[in-house]
Amino acid sequence: MDTDHSTGGSSASEEGAQLQKMWVTFRKKASLPHDCPPEAATLETGAREYLHSFLQCSVLFFQSLTGIHFTPPSDDGQVFSDMCMFLNIPHSLHTLLDKPDSSSSPGYSLRRLAGSWSSHSRLRELGAGAVASLPPILRQPRQLISLPRSYSDLVNKASKFKCANHVVDGDDGQAAMLCLLCGQMLCTNSYCCMTDVEDEEEEEDNQPGHKRLRIGGLTRHAQTCGDGVGMALWILEVYVVLLDATNIRHVKGCTLTPPYLDQYGESDPGLRRGSPLLLSEESVQQLDTVWFQHQVPERITQEMEQNRNLMGIVWSQM
C-alpha cells in the first residue's frame, strides 16, 4: 500500500503548532505544568533531530534486511524526507503520530498510545520529578584513540610509565600497554597488577568452596572499558593485543601486527632492528574495521586456528 508523503499543504509553522497542541495535551494528562509550551519552531526542530537518529538506525536495519541500498541526497535538508520515503512513512510529524497502527485495533494511533503513557497512574505517582530531560541525541560510535605519527613517541611514553602497584623500582615500561579504546596506560602481564575475582558461574552452580580466578591488568580493564573486549598496544613488544574476556572463565586472545611500519612496509617485533616506524593509515583503518564491526572475538578465533600456540597462553593473566 502506498503512503502519502505529502504534508497536505501545511507549512512548517502549522507543523509546529500541531506539536504545541500535542505537548499541552500530553502534559495535561500527566498532571504537569502546561501553561508555557516551547516555541513551535523549537519543538519541530527538536522532534526532527531526535527522530533523525532513530530513522538512521531504521534505514540501516532495513537496508541490511532487504538488500535495497539507500542513497543519501546531496542536499542535507532532504535527508529526513528521503529516509521517510525509504521507510514508507509520512514525513509530516503530526501525520505520522495520527497514522493508524495496523497491528492494533482500528483507529489506534501513536498519538493515542503516547496519551495513554502520559496518563499512566505510575507517572502520576512519581510526579514532575519523573519527567527528565530528553536523552542525548545518538552520538557517533566510539572510535579508537588517535595515535602519534612516530612510534618513538610511544616508546618514550612507555619508558616514563610507572605502575602504581609496583613497590620496587624497576623497568615498568616492559609491561606497559596502551588501551586503544580509551588511551589509558596499563601494566599487564605482570604480577604487580594481578587480582583475584570470584568465579560467578561456580557460585551459581552451588558448588562447595568458591574458586577465585586470577586476572591481569588488561583483563580487568577490559571488563569496564570494553564490556569484556580489549584492544591494546603492547608498546615495547610492538604488538596489538586483542582480548575476549566476556567469559572470565575462558579468556581468549591473540596478537596482531601494529599499525606502525618501516620504510619497507614491515613491522619490527621487539624493536630488534631499530628501524624507524611510522603510522600506517591503511593499518589503522583495518583496526577500525575490526572494532566497528565487532570482529574482535571472530578475529581471535581465526588467529587461534592458524596458530595453535596461542591456545597455550593464559590470556586471563594478561
UniProtKB/TrEMBL annotation:
Keyword field: Metal-binding, Transferase, Ubl conjugation pathway, Zinc, Zinc-finger
Keyword Calcium (UniProt): no
InterPro entries registered for this protein in UniProt: E3_ligase_UBR-like_C, UBR1-like
Recorded GO CC terms: cytoplasm; ubiquitin ligase complex
Annotated function: Ubiquitin ligase protein which is a component of the N-end rule pathway. Recognizes and binds to proteins bearing specific N-terminal residues that are destabilizing according to the N-end rule, leading to their ubiquitination and subsequent degradation.
Family according to the record: Belongs to the E3 ubiquitin-protein ligase UBR1-like family.
Designated name of the protein: E3 ubiquitin-protein ligase
